[in-house]
Amino acid sequence: MILSTLRNQKGIALITVYATSAFITILSAAAVGRAFWERRHVDNEISRLQSLAAAEAGLQRAMFQVSQNAYTGFINTAAINWPSFQDVSGVTVGSFTANIQYPNQADWVIVQATGTVNGFTRNLEGRIFLDSNLSKYLVYANATTFASGDNAQYGSSNGVDPQGVSGNPDDRTMMYFTGNWDANGTNVDLYGDVLAEGGIAGNASSQVHGDTYGQNFAQNGAGQVTNSGVTGGMVVGDGFADDTDRNGDGVINNNDYGDYHDLTDSGGNDAKAKDTLTAMNLAFYQSHNNVGAFSTAGNRYLEFQPVSGQSYSRVVEYTSSTYGTVKATYNLPDSAIVYVNGDAYVRGEIQGRVSIAASDDIMITGNFRYKSGQNYADATHSAALLAKDKLFFYPNTVSVSGILYGENTSNSSVAFDADYNMTGTYDPSSKVQLRLYGNRIINGSTNLSSYDDRVYAYDQNLKYYRPPGIPVVPDLRTVRET
Description:
Elements: H1 2-67, E1 80-86, E2 92-101, E3 108-117, E4 120-131, H2 133-136, E5 139-141, E6 145-147, E7 152-154, E8 173-177, E9 180-183, E10 189-190, E11 192-196, E12 200-202, E13 207-208, E14 212-214, E15 218-219, E16 225-227, E17 230-231, E18 235-236, E19 260-264, E20 271-273, H3 282-287, E21 300-306, E22 313-318, E23 326-331, E24 335-340, E25 344-350, E26 352-358, E27 362-370, E28 381-387, E29 391-393, E30 397-406, E31 414-417, E32 433-442, E33 445-446, E34 453-457, E35 473-481
Parallel strand pairs: 5-8, 5-32, 6-9, 7-10, 7-34, 8-11, 9-12, 10-13, 11-14, 12-17, 13-18, 14-19, 19-20, 21-25, 24-26, 25-27, 26-28, 27-29, 28-30, 29-31, 30-32, 31-33, 32-34
Antiparallel strand pairs: 1-2, 2-3, 3-4, 4-35, 15-16, 21-22, 22-23
């Protein structure tokens, strides 16, 4: 009996040992399986993150490609195919591709990038905006002091918002000065913002219907403004109740200088960044010239005419500045660059998108506008006059549309000159009225105050419908996963 009981207990013990061993084995197998699953899950997540990083690399590679010799209408849209890339140990881990679309040939490009790692694929879409200070500012002046004479109006009231300027800073007229802006002339009005690396000065009859951004702006540690950057009694304000309590006293008042801001190297809160110009690349314009005959050295006397029933312009070349005898006629493509190796004398109406670049001066001999006297650019009409040296305004009364650029390589004080008449004779007293619809980029100063009546109207459309050959800087602003 006792022996039988012992044998039964030994059997139960053995069964218990087996059961326990089996249970432990099952637990171990489950733990190993769980660890394997978790390891695989971690590896997959790593591969997913790596594939996203690969797609981001495709966006960055596209940014680099777009930035090389970036000009409106001449963006390199070749597809990018990076068949393999390695990790730090040199092992191939994945690939990426990027396709570039340039739908409107002016303002932005779309990049669709795909990254693949260990069979995992991620797709990103980025929008790269093409920024240009040739189309961003009503005036960009690189001068020690830019002076505005009497009765100068920059921009115009939109007739809706307080002070006539938008609350959206991207929709505002802007002027930029690498030195000082002297607005001490009577009745000087700016409907927009002014940025000055030097000082801003104006009397009580001059007004900035907007904000100021000055390098001289300064405040102390307590938030008190010690230098607004503006002197002389100029009136500044945009009319919006969006000011910052700078000194932290719980009250927003005149002590906070709400419409006065800082101009810095990098921008930031309540500030804007400094800007620089890209020098005119004559070799680029010569190599993309749509009228090869003008590449031969010599002055050209040109009249631009819309072609009936077509979407392009023709350029008629005359033998002299009197526009009496036609020398030749050339039809231009819808998007054209006309390069003149010498002085270009221009007038007429533009149909399509046209940039006229001259290795020396550009003489404006008559109204230079869009088809049917249209003042502002649109999707099918835009223009630029790009002079390596100066621009001269000859007529007593004249209207000009587009981007006007004077690099002033002769380094004289004046880059835009209105002191000469149609015969090229010095005669500043005869000038009556000037209307500019677009942007002025000036390396130096101007004496357009020879015109008694002057209005400089900003053309915001030139940011979106630029003519060909305008230097641009890519800016990746929006990215989304698709």
